[in-house]
Design goal:
heterodimer, A: alpha/beta, Rossmann fold, 2 domains, 7-stranded mixed beta sheet, 4-stranded mixed beta sheet, about 45% helix, B: mainly alpha, 15 helices, 2 strands, about 80% helix, globular, membrane (chain B)
């Protein structure tokens, strides 16, 4: 018997912990970032969150850095993978705040992970400009965590504007009032369906088919077949990324004959348009942007040039806008985090989405809610306070 | 039951160690306390896991199921009931659930039991999702004034209870019966031991402890959703930490949890783009180099020293 295996393990541990100490330089602004690179949310975060962060850091540093008290400071990005695990998010934020001495930390990805990190952002006084955290609890949360800001809208607004878009189509005589509504049986899908049902009924729609399916369901043909049998005028799915693709695929196979077809999360992903091509024409989805605006076109071009991938047509641009807001605040008041938070509450910021300001609940009141694939581009068709909405078109088959 | 001098000395040392651990939040209220919470959480989970799986050799992957149930107890009850009663309630529900599961499955052995416990987390998760879907319930927010230090003390208290329970079980007839079952279940049954009853009773301990751990940690996560509460990785982490330490002694899992937490911390801070890969390699290295855990290593060293002295 020998002791060498133990010694090997000990020396490996020692080397690993020696590497933990990171050099901190005085002339750079240390920006922390923690979001999934692995785990269930990695697919969304690597489309929406990480590329916009890399693009922003690249652009700021190529321009010579941010101007802080008359001095140019470069950005040093410190990034961690939270493995879509709230315990890891907490550890990473803790590490960024106390070991890496980050000046600012970019808000995590996803509602659950943002809220797990909120007590730490609050305790260390970091402003948290959350993007992919959609909730109706803004008032309670901003009361509890005064440093937390919301940019992407509320659950109820997302559902209400879908109802409004469909009501307008019906009132214009473009379709009848029969709706098939399905949802993925998971947190956000349940919330949206719960919010939408009374709104549909209140608007005089008849829900002719209603069902749900578990997260991760592979075979969605019973859902689409059931909906088709009820002969609805509109099909609405409060769906997540895998089933957004699966439902669309089945609708093509079954040739689901509806005037409006809506799937929720991931419909604005460039991968959706790429996969379904011409069949995506007329599909409605959650989110949207104004793709014709020069600011967005410039952003999308830079995004592809720097990161090699296209941004999505919703939260990507908002993520980038949240970083523009942070940069403008730092240039205005310096590196003091309390000053930056105060500045966030009282100022209006010029971003690629247009002007953004925060209300008494730290909430951005101007956001996109519904978009539609038109001519290979996902265009915003409904928003709260944003310019550039285009008229809705009817879904005309799957060819 | 009588206490020997060694027992009294051990109890005194354990109480002293606990007091020193309890002082951590006074020394550091940030990074190290955060790691302290992680260590306390996995100590409670891995030690209680080893109480059952150590003597019986039944590998249970049900930790995530009980943990998730505990977070939901706090999530659903925090607006109506005081926090301490929710922790107790979670323990009770965890124990009852473990008893039901135990009655149904502990007559299975080997790989069948492992697979059932792995599926249990998914089963409970789907049941909760089904209820939420049918009642149209919104996301659960746990907004409390409990801070990191408070959570740490709660977990530390739970660890103390686990160690005390483990020590008492080890001295009891139940503990003796389980060691016999672990060595040879047929012999145990022929000696008149009600093996099913003994196993079910002991399986309730990790069930209750994991549910209480979940209940205590729910305020730390703030937002409770099924995919985060029932993450299956937790079950595997607990098993690996307990095995790294060694499941045959009461203090075995503890000596696995502490180095493993630091290893995970070093990996996730140095390899942000390959965290999962490096952790996977670390698992393989541990299993390959330390098959008996630190306890097994220590036993071998002791054995070698003893052998040398004899010659």
């Amino acid at each position: 018997m020998n002791r060498r295996p133990f010694l090997k393990l000990v020396s490996a541990l020692t080397i690993a912990s020696a590497l933990v100490a990171s050099a901190a330089s005085a002339d750079t602004i240390r920006i922390g970032a923690v979001a999934p690179k692995t785990g269930p949310l990695a697919g969304g975060a690597t489309v929406t969150q990480w590329p916009s962060i890399y693009l922003w850091v690249d652009q700021v540093n190529k321009a010579g850095g941010l101007t802080v008290d008359g001095e140019q400071m470069m950005i040093e990005l410190i990034e961690y993978d939270d493995q879509t695990n709230p315990g890891e998010t907490i550890k990473a934020v803790q590490r960024l705040a106390t070991q890496d001495d980050a000046h600012f930390i970019i808000a995590p990805y996803g509602t659950g992970l943002n809220l797990a990190a909120a007590p730490l952002f609050d305790r260390y006084g970091y402003p948290q400009i959350a993007v992919s955290a959609i909730t109706d609890q803004q008032a309670d949360l901003s009361d509890k965590f005064p440093n937390m800001f919301f940019t992407l809208g509320t659950t109820t607004a997302l559902a209400a504007d879908v109802v409004k878009v469909l009501s307008d189509m019906r009132d214009a005589g473009q379709m009848g009032d029969k709706v098939a509504m399905v949802n993925v049986a998971d947190a956000f899908g349940i919330e949206l369906a719960t919010a939408a049902k009374p709104l549909f009924e209140g608007a005089g729609f008849e829900i002719v088919y209603e069902t749900s399916y578990p997260l991760g369901t592979q075979d969605l043909s019973p859902v689409i077949k059931g909906a088709a049998a009820a002969e609805p005028d509109a099909f609405v799915a409060w769906s997540y990324p895998p089933d957004t693709f699966g439902l669309t695929e089945q609708a093509m196979i079954e040739n689901l004959d509806v005037k409006a077809f809506y799937t929720a999360v991931a419909t604005p992903f460039p991968g959706y348009g790429a996969r379904f091509g011409a069949a995506a024409e007329g599909v409605l989805g959650a989110g949207g942007v104004n793709p014709e605006s020069p600011a967005f076109m410039e952003y999308a071009a830079a995004h592809e040039a720097v990161t090699g991938s296209k941004p999505d047509y919703w939260a990507s641009a908002t993520t980038y806008a949240s970083l523009e807001i942070l940069a403008q605040s730092i240039e205005a008041v310096g590196l003091d985090r309390a000053d930056v938070t105060a500045h966030l509450k009282e100022s209006t910021f010029e971003t690629i989405l247009g002007p953004i300001s925060f209300d008494e609940n730290n909430s951005n009141a101007d956001f996109w809610t519904v978009g539609q694939w038109q001519g290979g581009v996902f265009k915003g068709v409904a928003s709260r306070g944003r310019d550039g909405t285009v008229p809705v078109i009817l879904k005309d088959g799957w060819e | 039951m009588s206490l020997t001098g060694t027992d009294i000395r051990n109890l005194f040392l354990a109480a002293l160690a606990l007091t020193i651990c309890a002082l951590l939040p006074l020394g550091d209220n940030g990074y190290w306390l955060g790691l302290g919470v992680t260590i306390a959480m996995f100590t409670a989970l891995a030690t209680s896991w080893a109480l059952f799986s150590g003597p019986t050799h039944y590998i249970s992957l049900a930790t995530a199921a009980f943990f998730g149930v505990g977070t939901y107890v706090t999530g659903l009850g925090i607006d109506n009931l005081p926090f301490w009663s929710l922790v107790g309630l979670a323990g009770l529900i965890g124990a009852i659930l473990a008893a039901l599961v135990g009655l149904a499955t502990l007559r299975l052995s080997g790989v069948y039991f492992v697979i059932f416990t792995l599926g249990l987390a998914e089963l409970v998760r789907q049941v909760i999702t089904w209820v939420q879907n049918n009642t149209g319930q919104k996301g659960l927010y746990v907004l409390t004034d409990l801070d990191e230090a408070g959570i740490y003390w709660w977990l530390l208290g739970l660890c103390a209870i686990v160690f005390l329970a483990g020590w008492l079980i080890g001295r009891s007839r139940l503990g003796f019966a389980l060691r016999i079952i672990g060595d040879d279940e047929t012999v145990a049954a022929h000696s008149g031991i009600n093996t099913a009853r003994a196993k079910v009773l002991l399986f309730m301990v990790p069930g209750a402890v994991a549910a209480m751990t979940g209940a205590i940690l729910a305020p730390r996560y703030v937002y409770i959703e099924p995919s985060l509460a029932f993450a299956p990785i937790l079950s595997f982490q607990v098993v690996i930490m307990a095995l790294l330490g060694g499941a045959s002694r009461l203090w075995g899992p503890l000596v696995g949890v502490i180095p493993f937490t630091f290893l995970l911390e070093a990996v996730s801070s140095n390899f942000p783009n390959q965290t999962t890969l490096v952790i996977g390699v670390a698992f393989l290295v541990i299993v390959y180099l330390l098959p008996g855990g630190f306890v097994g290593l220590l036993n071998k060293i002791m054995h070698r020293i003893n052998t040398r002295e004899r010659f």
